[in-house]
Specification:
This protein is an all-alpha fold and 511 residues long. It has helices at residues 2-21, 29-34, 41-52, 55-69, 74-103, 108-115, 119-139, 144-151, 156-203, 207-216, 240-252, 258-265, 270-295, 318-323, 328-362, 372-395, 399-425, 431-451, 457-478, 484-491.
């Protein structure tokens, strides 16, 4: 217990120390929200990765999908690395940085407002972000209850309040730079932690070959395996169609999440894009691949501890059950790992929520003339507000909020992904198509809560994203486009000439 407490106290002390040391970077709106658009490759890549993977992934998704799909759940981690990280950086990174800098956009709703010359779009986007980021924020505490109960035998409420309060302190003090630096530290902890845990857990089940053998012997007459011998060790698992839906939502979905795309706004230079792409992809392979690979062995830890009173499986209890037999030092590292994953994502979400509400809804609409100091003050107050709401919902989740947590990712990505992506690349993207994507993305995921026309909310979210990618070009072609001169002026930012060193690009002609 002493070892675990020392690790926990040291971790919290470092987080607060970083907040204090980065205060000088948070004196302006640009510095507080974007780090002055001067964030290097390592910080940007780790900020992206740690915002991507939270306790929801490590405790919730890894346990749930590992239980359902066995080792084939590792495909989710591979998809997260290749689609959610590598392709996101290659396709979105550079263009997002160039266009948002040219437009002077600090948030995703701000981008929609300025790219499509519509204050109404900016307000609508900020409202959607506000509504669906709050339950997403509250969901970050999922799984911490079982984990902290196993490690410390302390009240879950105390854990939630402590984690939320410390996250709020360092974000309020240092803004984006405090978040980025802490994300880097937390990312290092996550890498070493997941590697150590995988080795320890598998060794406890007879090593890699022994664990695979035990998992392959799961009876094929069980309905879950659909009659497939060795289903949980097979290449695509017992249910490849639903597995594909999980891969699409958790990988492609990041392209439309405000807190993820925001990382590209802050990139410093070309080197940061190139290096960040590699670092972010490797980080995702290790963290996401490791989490889902570990979860794939969940059925080897079937015990009474993972079942609720009604006989249903508590997926959040599977990973803690796997870890309960580890040495105290490793359990302490796991607790720090999960706290790192949760606090990094929480800090990103509350910063995104507060900046969006302040800059896109309150400024210029409710308060016409808002000075910079007022903007900073309101953002800091809203950070406290968002964290308080997330704590309240996490401690006393009403039924509709619990349902909303499951569709937050799908609604946000379904509404924002397509118009954001097409807006970066296609001049013909129309204002009406953005509205259509907002309606389709939110409509499909919310209606599915009540009508259940798609059995899995994960698949509903994936369907919402795909629908947006189809709807935006169709509506754009049949509705009036944007003012051509304005669009040409915006897209001219990509054609601006820059000089680079010979080692970066060879000249067209040699002397």
């Amino acid at each position: 217990m002493a070892v675990k407490l020392i690790l926990l106290i040291a971790f919290f002390a470092v987080m607060i120390g970083v907040g204090l040391s980065t205060r000088k970077n948070a004196g302006s709106v640009d510095g507080f929200v974007l780090g002055g658009r001067n964030v290097g490759p390592w910080l940007t890549a780790f900020a992206y990765g740690t915002s991507y993977f939270s306790a929801v992934v490590f405790v919730g998704y890894a346990g749930q999908f590992g239980w359902k799909y066995g080792l084939s759940a590792t495909w989710v981690g591979i998809g997260n690395a290749l689609i959610g990280s590598l392709l996101a950086w290659i396709i979105l990174g550079r263009r997002t940085r160039i266009m948002t800098h040219y437009l002077g956009a600090a948030t995703m709703p701000d981008y929609f407002g300025k790219r499509f010359d519509s204050n109404a779009l900016r307000i609508a986007a900020s409202v959607i972000a506000f509504i669906f980021l709050i339950p997403y924020t509250a969901s970050l505490y999922n799984g911490l209850s079982s984990l902290f109960g196993m490690a410390f035998n302390i009240d879950y409420k105390l854990c939630v309040i402590l984690m939320a309060a410390l996250t709020g302190v360092y974000v309020i003090l240092g803004g984006y730079m405090a978040t980025a630096v802490n994300d880097f530290i937390q990312g290092i902890i996550m890498i070493f932690g997941i590697c150590a845990v995988i080795v320890a857990v598998i060794n406890g089940r007879g090593g890699f070959i022994g664990a695979i053998k035990s998992l392959a012997e799961f009876p094929s007459d069980n309905p879950v395996t659909m009659g497939q011998p060795g289903a949980f060790t097979s290449f695509f698992g017992p249910d490849p169609i639903n597995l594909l839906g999980v891969v699409i939502l958790t990988s492609l979905g990041t392209w439309g999440l405000p807190q993820m795309v925001h990382k590209f706004y802050t990139i410093k230079n070309e080197k940061a894009v190139q290096t960040g792409t590699v670092i972010s992809t490797i980080f995702a392979f290790i963290i996401a691949g490791g989490c889902y690979f570990l979860g794939g062995f969940g059925r080897l830890f079937d015990s009474e501890a993972i079942y609720r009173a009604d006989g249903s499986i508590a997926f959040d209890a599977i990973i803690p059950s796997m870890l309960s037999t580890l040495p105290d030092l490793l359990i302490g590292i796991v607790v720090i790992l999960v706290l790192s994953a949760s606090m990094s994502t929480l800090s990103s979400l509350v910063l995104t929520s507060s900046s969006t509400l302040t800059l896109d809804l309150i400024k210029g609409n409710i308060v016409k003339d808002m000075k910079e100091k007022q903007q900073l003050l309101i953002m800091r107050v809203l950070i406290v507000f968002f964290i308080a709401i997330s704590v309240i919902l996490a401690l006393n989740p009403p039924t509709f909020i619990a349902q909303l947590m499951g569709i937050s990712w799908g609604a946000l990505a379904g509404a924002f992904l397509a118009p954001f992506l097409y807006g970066l690349f296609w001049k013909r993207t129309s204002k009406a198509s953005v509205w259509a994507s907002f309606v389709v993305g939110v409509g499909i995921t919310v209606l599915n809560m009540f009508i259940k026309f798609i059995a899995s909310p994960i698949n509903a979210g994936a369907a919402a994203m795909i629908a947006g990618l189809i709807v935006v070009p169709i509506v754009s072609l049949v509705t009036p486009g944007m003012n051509k001169k304005k669009v040409e002026k915006i897209f001219s930012c990509y054609d601006e000439k820059v000089e680079v060193a010979r080692k970066v690009a060879l000249p067209e002609e040699e002397d």
